[in-house]
Specification:
The protein is of the alpha+beta class. It contains nine helices and 20 strands. The chain has helices at about 60-75, 90-95, 115-120, 125-135, 140-155, 175-190, 215-220, 260-275, 370-380, and strands at about 10-15, 35-40, 45-50, 85, 110, 160, 175, 200-205, 205-210, 220-230, 235-245, 245-255, 275-280, 285-295, 300-305, 310-315, 320-330, 330, 340-350, 350-360. The relative contact order is 0.16.
């Protein structure tokens, strides 16, 4: 009886155009207790210090409250001209009596959603957050329940909200990474509303207040997002900057002053833009290689990558990148278009990324005489 050759694991290394860089990516440190720097497009962590530790975010958690409003504006459930009523609860808990972060909303007054957004983002108004929560969901408690559901839907795995304001609460925690991810989502999903984050001042009820984000005054490409401060959490900042097509988001927390949080955030952002870049390897639907076919009516089948292969990496590591295709050769016919037939492996520095490769077309089996010929050929080889 004729025996078939066993399938062999086939690995092909693809030669890609590469660039050499002479500068080494320097090490960097921060005095922040917790910090993370991510690329907004890829979510890649350029810098991490206790980045997945649950922490008290203070007013930085207002970004989730803002998300809940932006989403309703985008899907039509709200309009910027809608008016919300200021309850006594929102007025009393929101800061008017305590002179904490407040928009100074008069009790029982009406406020437009467009103003409320600026009251939350620019003025960090606790009263504005509670007004939004009560009018959107009936109560702050209901709104918080919806916030937590939405956080899970968005992939915020290290977040639990207990209020709409960021007021200190043992159950109100989020990781720096999830805050940075939320900032990235806000910038990408709501470009029509996102520019409010870079507004430097807002006047309401004849009271002018300035945006507390230090970076929008001194870093030309900084355009958001939100500060936070309590006695327990220290000074924190979720900040974003965009240079060309690249957006980086940084979170720092546990610092001693507004100046220090600005200095540390700016330092990390500049370092990230300088030492890292995004690189495009393949586009979704592109043929990466052609695989050998056994007893098929065609000898080769295109191997298609089903998603964009875009990676964030140190500029120094770009010339070290190795890209390879791995599959069991030859692939036995019949083959269906879209069937997984191999793997694309990209090794960058210490990281390995893998992507499924699928068949680009159907390949039918050969007829009986073709099969016999292929078997004899395989046996002789």
């Amino acid at each position: 009886m004729l025996k078939l050759n066993k399938a062999k694991l086939f690995t092909a290394t693809l030669l890609l155009g590469v660039s050499n860089f002479s500068l080494n990516a320097s090490a960097i440190e921060t005095s922040a207790k917790q910090a993370v720097l991510i690329d907004a497009k890829s979510g890649y962590e350029l810098y991490s210090k206790e980045a997945h530790e649950m922490m008290a975010p203070a007013s930085m958690s207002k970004l989730m409250t803002v998300y809940m409003i932006f989403e309703r504006l985008k899907d039509g459930r709200l309009s910027l001209d809608d008016e919300f009523i200021v309850s006594e609860n929102a007025w009393s808990k929101g800061g008017a009596k305590t002179e904490s972060s407040t928009m100074y909303l008069p009790v029982h007054s009406k406020v437009k959603v467009s103003d409320l957004i600026r009251g939350i983002i620019v003025q960090s108004g606790n009263d504005a957050c509670i007004v939004a929560a009560e009018n959107i969901s009936g109560s702050e408690e209901n709104f918080v329940y919806e916030m937590n559901l939405k956080a899970k839907e968005l992939g915020l795995k290290e977040a639990h909200f207990a209020n709409a304001t960021g007021w200190p609460n043992d159950n109100h925690k989020i990781s720096p990474y999830d805050l940075a991810l939320l900032g990235s989502i806000l910038a990408e999903k709501f470009p029509e509303y996102y520019p409010v984050f870079s507004e430097k001042a807002f006047t309401y009820n004849n009271i002018k207040q300035h945006n507390r984000n230090p970076l929008i005054y001194r870093m030309p490409d900084a355009d958001g997002l939100k500060t936070g401060h309590t006695q327990d959490s220290g000074f924190g900042l979720t900040a974003s900057a965009k240079r060309g097509d690249r957006r980086l988001v940084v979170v720092v927390n546990g610092l001693k002053s507004n100046k220090e949080r600005g200095d540390e955030a700016e330092k990390l952002l500049n370092w990230g833009f300088r030492e890292f870049d995004n690189y495009h390897f393949f586009s979704a639907g592109e043929t990466v290689a052609n695989a050998e076919v056994w007893i098929g009516k065609e000898d080769l089948v295109p191997m298609i990558v089903s998603e964009d292969v875009d990676l964030t990496m140190k500029k120094l590591d770009r010339h070290k990148t190795k890209v390879s295709v791995v599959y069991n050769a030859p692939i036995k016919a019949p083959i269906k278009k879209g069937q997984k037939i191999g793997t694309l492996k990209v090794v960058t520095g210490e990281e390995i990324k893998t992507y499924d490769l699928t068949a680009g077309k159907d390949v039918a089996k050969k007829g009986i005489f073709g099969k016999i010929s292929a078997v004899i050929k395989g046996y002789l080889l």
